[in-house]
Write a structure and sequence with these properties.
Elements lengths: L7 H9 L9 E5 L1 H6 L1 H10 L4 E3 L18 E4 L5 E4 L7 E2 L24 H9 L4 E3 L6 H9 L1 H9 L3 H22 L5 E5 L12 H7 L1 H13 L3 E6 L4 H10 L3 E4 L6 H8 L4 E3 L7 H4 L2 H15 L5 E7 L5 H11 L4
């Protein structure tokens, strides 16, 4: 039986520090699609399996300069002036036309300095009044931001040809993220997070050498800022990331959210169990959409058997397009069997 007097915050800290948590902490990521498609089941899942990790709202004093709705069919322009086209309600769209088609277009980029107007006192009050483990409401994503601004094909060519203008733009973006990350690190949140989707199905989008030259130094800065203020630091990256996990451990990353089922889970465990916390996840490409409940149960057991080490494992998964609510429930039910 679980001890009712143990707070979710302590359970997460015990997990990150490999100190034998009372249970496996959990977190559900979801898109509006899930709530729209399965309103009754969605609400029941949220009731039965509340999150142990939650996010603090930025409580901005200045309004973001955006237009449209990010998860509504149609166009949405974000605070950087990037326009996304969304084909259906409930999901986030894609940038069809990059803002920077030629380097003369750099002047069109808008640095969203209103993101620096967070209400620190309100954030701190929120943190003091919850028992959950609180993640910051910012999330630097330098590679993805470059993709949104430049376009994926252009960006990959820029990297391959060592385009000097790309380095200048990267540094402008990074300088802003440094300011934002440092500001959040001075609040009372428990952790900060950053992200970039680096993986395809079975390899990285760029060579590990290029990644180490161009982006590893940026992540070193984010992790250093978080740790210098006594915060844990998390990273999300979709796809195959096996080739850079050792680098992230070297930098001191506390937890990584990645698509485990794009890799050999036994190999992941042999290399990294007990050295970094795996912040989910279950396979959302196939299992959560078409798997049987028995397959879901076996998948959870596979992850636990190979990656749990007196902690080091968070029961995180995503309820997005295609996922079946009964599979989401079965996954959390199975996680609850591990104490």
């Amino acid at each position: 039986m679980f001890r009712q007097d143990i707070s979710p915050r302590k359970i997460v800290y015990d997990t990150l520090e490999f100190e034998g948590p009372d249970r496996i902490p959990r977190q559900l990521w979801w898109l509006p699609w899930a709530q729209q498609s399965y309103p009754t089941q969605f609400n029941e899942i949220r009731r039965r399996f509340p999150d142990d990790l939650i996010y603090a709202n930025g409580e901005l004093k200045e309004k973001l300069h955006t237009s449209g709705q990010p998860y509504a069919k149609g166009s949405y322009t974000d605070e950087w002036n990037c326009t996304f086209e969304t084909p259906v309600d409930g999901v986030l769209g894609e940038v069809r036309e990059p803002l920077i088609k030629t380097w003369a277009d750099v002047e069109k980029v808008r640095i969203p300095r209103e993101c620096l107007s967070i209400d620190i006192e309100r954030i701190n009050t929120f943190c003091r009044n919850t028992k959950e483990f609180v993640l910051a409401g910012c999330c630097p994503r330098p590679f993805e931001r470059l993709q949104f601004l430049r376009g994926s094909e252009n960006l990959l060519l820029d990297i391959a040809t060592s385009e000097t203008d790309l380095l200048k733009l990267r540094d402008i973006i990074h300088e802003f993220y440094i300011q934002e990350f440092d500001l959040w690190a001075r609040t009372e949140v428990d952790a900060l997070a950053f992200m970039d989707d680096w993986g395809m199905q079975h390899s990285l989008l760029i060579s590990p050498q290029s990644w180490r030259e161009l982006f590893k130094p940026l992540y070193r800065d984010y992790i250093s800022i978080a740790h210098s203020h006594g915060k844990k630091v998390f990273m999300h990256s979709d796809g195959y990331t096996l080739d850079i996990i050792e680098d992230l451990i070297e930098l001191g990353l506390d937890a990584i959210n990645t698509q485990l089922f794009c890799m050999d889970i036994e190999q992941l465990g042999q290399r990294y169990k007990g050295r970094i916390t795996f912040w989910g996840e279950l396979d959302r490409q196939q299992l959560l959409a078409t798997g049987s409940e028995e397959q879901i149960e076996q998948a959870v057991k596979l992850v636990h058997r190979n990656l749990y080490h007196n902690g080091g494992l968070i029961a995180q998964l995503e309820f997005g397009p295609g996922a079946r609510p009964e599979n989401i429930s079965k996954a959390f039910e199975t996680w609850n069997n591990f104490v």
